[in-house]
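Open question from group meeting: does this chain pack into something compact, or does most of it stay loose? Before anyone orders reagents, we agreed to write out a predicted structure and look at it together. Recording both the input and the output here so the notebook holds the full record.
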Amino acid sequence: MKKKLTVIFAAVFLPVVLLVFFITAFIISPDSSAKDETVASRPSDKDSPDMISESYEKAASDSTRSYIYDKSESTKTGENAAETADSRKFMTSFEEKTASSLAHSDGVMKEEDVSVNEPGIIQSAYSDIGISIASTYVNIRDKASTGGRIRGKLYRDAAAKILDTVGDWYYIESGNVRGYIKSDYIKTGIPEDELIEKYGILRISVISEGLNVRKSPEIESEKVAVIYRNECYPAIGLMDGWVKIEIPDEKITGYVSREYVELLVDFKKAISIEEEEELKKREEIEKAKKESGIKYREAFKYTEEDLKLLACLVHAEAGNQSYEGKLAVANVVLNRVKSGKFPNTIKEVIYQPGQFTVAANGALAKQLKKYKNYTSKSHLSSIKAAKAALSGENNIGSRLYFNEYKASVKMGYDKKKNCVKIDDQLFW
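Structure tokens returned:
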């Protein structure tokens, strides 16, 4: 009987004791596998989702009118610290304000733009982008009618975001311009690769602290330069894992690892009427600087009377102009002296009937009387310009005519190929 009780006791209580022992041991002893899991699950700096997320947010804040297109591949280890990066991204930009052609009106990516199956890849980023196919440009108007006021121009191959369709017109945004364009002049539905390759202008932005530029697309290749975070350079070629770039200031071309840069794609944008006017003014100034650069020719033989007459004519015609404008007027006179179309002396050229208004209306005579008292800065500048021209300084080439700029425009002289504007006067 005692043996039977002992067996029953052992069968019932021994498993309970063993169970309690194992539970206590499990709770008290450290679990090395859990510790290993903690270490293993800590992301490296390079692969940290937090860092990638922050990088995306920075891109959005720096350019709210940009799309990020992530084509990430397996991360590779760079040769040194100058070739490490946080992540790889493909960003397309419409170059601020031009970027309005690509972005949502509020500049923020929406959930429906991101694929559920492929997080981070923006779908149809270019679906609402159209390209101008006009022979030269198409006008952007303030209403969907050819009678609408012109707000700007979209030149051939420039891009615009299509915001709406009104009959056979598109309501678009490009650069600083919003308005209506006849749909016949806009090509839409262009595949993304074709759009970027044919109409895009590629740049890179460095996303590592320092990045080696190499002579050829190989990690062992000779280093030709080092570029740094946020610096941007033209991209002139793409290949597997590498981007060929240009460093214009140093006249260097080389290769950088694609995983350490953002690829930026810019497009041509529309230009507003105001911007076009400002651009035209700047072009005129640059043209004047280029074409009114002083060149030297054989000096003229002249008398003091010639100098006096020329200086007084210059002051009568251009007393309120810059020195360059005065020099140009003096050279018009001398160009005529050398030309077979006009008399061959300074006096005869100046007093030729129907040529210089100041010679006929008394303004020149008035200056000749005051010549002995030419002491002001403006007076002395006129004498200096006349003397320089006689000495061979020429800033208008062989041009023979000039007139007040606004009057010249009314008469169409600004259409002449050789015309150049200096101050308030046009020379041709």
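Observations to bring back to the group:
Residues 307 and 386 are 7 Å apart (CA to CA).
The chain has twelve helices and 22 strands.
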